[in-house]
Amino acid sequence: MANPDSAPFRVASIGLGRWAKVIGDGATRSPRLQIVSCFTRDADKRAAFAGSYGCRQAESLEALLADSEVEGVMITTPNDTHADLIIRAAEAGKHVYTEKPISNSIEDAYRIVDACQKGGVRLAVGHSARQLGPVRKIRQMMEDGTLGDVSLVEANFSNDRGLELTPDRWRWFKDKSPGGPLIQLAVHHVDTLQGLFGPIQNVSAQLRRLYTSAEVDDLAVLICSFERGPVAYIGTSWSTAGVYSINVYGSGGAAFYQADFSHWSAGDTDSYSSLQFQARDSFERRPVTFEQVDMYRAELEDWADAARSGRDPEVSGPEATSALAVVWAAIQSSETGQTVTVQQRDSA
Amino acid sequence: MANPDSAPFRVASIGLGRWAKVIGDGATRSPRLQIVSCFTRDADKRAAFAGSYGCRQAESLEALLADSEVEGVMITTPNDTHADLIIRAAEAGKHVYTEKPISNSIEDAYRIVDACQKGGVRLAVGHSARQLGPVRKIRQMMEDGTLGDVSLVEANFSNDRGLELTPDRWRWFKDKSPGGPLIQLAVHHVDTLQGLFGPIQNVSAQLRRLYTSAEVDDLAVLICSFERGPVAYIGTSWSTAGVYSINVYGSGGAAFYQADFSHWSAGDTDSYSSLQFQARDSFERRPVTFEQVDMYRAELEDWADAARSGRDPEVSGPEATSALAVVWAAIQSSETGQTVTVQQRDSA
Lengths: 348, 348
Known about the structure:
By secondary structure, chain A is an alpha/beta fold.
């Protein structure tokens, strides 16, 4: 019998919508994961997914969680269903990958983290963006001194989803997608920037419902202060062209990173991204080369390796809960007109 | 005798430091202005300026203001000296161009505006940036519908001045340069964006003193809400590379404008700027052509024409006072941790 640690990590997909394919394709691109089963309530969608990925299909969630071949589940259901699914998976001893945000409410995030700890399973949360090649390169440019002392960070993640929402989509509703593009898009930047610059201490924010027909806000503008000193602007509009950018301003110079959002889902985003550096004493922006990373494959391999070796994935419960806490601090700041301290769990 | 309205507008420079040359050169590039005199207390600097610009020099401010040939004065002294100089000039019946900000304090701004009104002279304030070609083009792209409904605006004006300050410079001191790069650099964006999007209603901001040795802050990050709905981020760091950018996100697409700060002083900034447009349904950023404007010449010609015709210049007392009110709202917001309503004079 082969060493089980060198065999692919056997996973099952739960919630088989558009994003299940993005994540499923990421798993398929890796020799270290194998999709062995899937489940969603709709039998036709289930059969189609099983056919596409050459895996079994479970007739019920109970059956899937009772399948001893399944080591981990990949959850791409709506935000507000994460907690119950993850808790059941953890109780069944299955490792869990879930889409971001970890949940809509902080209370659910705590329940998720506690259940995974109790079940002895490894939780990874799909803040894939921190895996991107230019993000890693920016970290390296901080560590090798190229950027010097960082004062200001700018990050924007926008698209026109808010103008296309209809009431048959869960993102239309405030209770299912609180903060709109803030919890769906900008939460990526919150995690990526906390990965680069450490914990965000407090947030000032303004959210607006401007042009969407949906219940949710379609604009959020945040000022995030890091404990270490720098301050970040994070902006997200749900009623404009597709944009994904991060700029980092340091005393050594400034880095400008921009991805082509039309390639966001395919795993080859880095092939359509640019990273430039402008030294402090220069006005020329020179291209910077970076290693191209398949962000979905990378985060799933990190999860599989973590599950097999018993370590925590790079973005696990605490990191994802912290990103969610920043989202809620922003919502509270916008409602109260006050700068809000981010509640970290151990300080709560 | 020639028609006096077609003869050049006769001006004198007051405060003959580095910026007097930038403005003096702008006047020299226009056939509609003529520098006829100058004054600063230092006799050597005065003689050098008079020699460079082929103008007379006044032995005292009194003498300059008594010179009946002088129609207007161009003031480039430190912020906190503007009010007394402008009030004296207005009392002498001289039209006034002053550098931005109009003053450090709102009270001084009111005194300035009242004195100019009482003296029947036209006041122009050097928020030159709203004259720039790409700014005018963005306005056109709003008016012709290209940008659609604007939700989000981003503006950054940064350089490394904070790292180079020494105590012999007035910008070192908090009482002479409150807000540091906010009142020196970002105030341009405040005016330009109010010119494009109308009055800013309220401000959330965080200011920091991070890396400068000076007394002043070297970082400011603002969220500015416009009465009309859109929200802007304005950022300024005084400890990084030179950056000047404005991005406008609308439902029709997004405009990205970037100037090369090394060409900020020469009047040919527009020759080194780029403006791009990304349509909402596209991910390609196409170059947009714009008319190149010499911003210093343009603002001075606007002032001269206003003085001759008895109209207000494009950026006069009310506009500049409003920009200063946003600066002080930001300082207050940072100190109190609260969103601050901008005090407009007529609502005070």
